[in-house]
Amino acid sequence: MSLSIVLTGDLIGSTEVEPSVVDLAMTCLSSAASTIADWTGNDTRFTRFRGDGWQIILSDPPLVLRATLLILASLRAKGGGLATRLSVATGTVDRLGDRGLAEASGPAFTLSGRNLDTMPPFRTFVYAALDRDQRWTIAIMDLAVWQAQQWTPEQAEAAMLALDLPRRTDKVLAAQLGISRQAFQSRIKGTGLMAMRSALHAFELERKTTER
Questions:
Q1: I need a labelling partner for 201 at 20 to 30 A (CA). Which of 77, 141, 164, 166 fits?
Q2: What's the rounded Cα separation, in Å, for the pair 201 and 167?
Q3: Among 6, 98, 134, which residue's Cα sits nearest to residue 59?
Q4: How far apart, in whole angstroms, are the C-alpha atoms of residue 10 and residue 203?
C-alpha cells in the first residue's frame, strides 16, 4: 500500500489576536497548500478545524521537506505574525472522504493528529513515520524547521518563491518581488536554503517526475 504524508497543525497564539488575523493566516496556509498541490497534480484537501487548526495530505512523500518549508515560509511571510505548531506523519491512508479531510482516516492521520495533541509545550514541530527507521529523516527535518523558524518575513518571502516548483531563475523571482537580483540572492543566502539543497535533493531522489 502506498504511503502518504499528513500535516496537521494549529496556530500559536491565535486567541490573543483578532479573528481577522487568524483568517489571514488560514488563507495563507490554504494558498501554500494549493501551491503544493500544483507540484503533484493532486489535491492537498486543505481543511480548517477547531477554529485555529488545519490539515493537509501530501500524496508524494519525497516532497515532505520542501512542503514543510514552504508552509512555514508562507506563514512567516504573509501570516499576520502568527506561527503554527506542526505534526508531520508518514503512513498509509484508509479513506479520504468526499470533501476535505473531516472524514479521512488511517494510520497517517491517527499518528499526525495524536502527535500534535501530545506535543510538549516546549516544542512546535514533530515528524514521525510508522513504516521504518526514520532517525536521519527526523534529524534533517528538525534542523531544517529550526532554520526556517529563524527567517525574517523578507527572507521567508524569498524562500517561498525559491522553494516553488519548477524552480525559476533568480532574476525572474527578484522581479516578482520588485527587488534586484543581488538583493534576492542576499535574502536567499540568509535563509540557509543553499545549504539545504543537498537535503532537498536527497529527499526528492525517488520522485517519479523530474524537477526542472
A1: 77
A2: 13
A3: 6
A4: 25
pLDDT the model gives residue 131: 62
Closest by CA to 56, choosing from 7, 114, 2, is 7
**Grid coordinates of 185:** 540572492
Strand pairing class (83-91; 125-129): parallel
Amino acid identity of residue 104, one-letter, is: A
pLDDT in tens, 54-79: 999 999 999 999 999 999 999 999 99
**What DSSP line would sit under 152-203, residue for residue?**
-HHHHHHHHHHHSSSPPPHHHHHHHHTS-HHHHHHHHHHHTHHHHHHHHHHH
For the chain, which residues make up each domain, given as ranges? 4-151
The CATH topology of domain 4-151 is: Alpha-Beta Plaits (3.30.70)
Distance in angstroms (rounded) separating the CA atoms of residues 191 and 147: 7
φ/ψ of 87, rounded to 5, equals -120, 120
Helices (H) and strands (E) in the chain, counts: 8, 5
Say how far apart CA 208 and CA 60 lie, in whole Å.
9
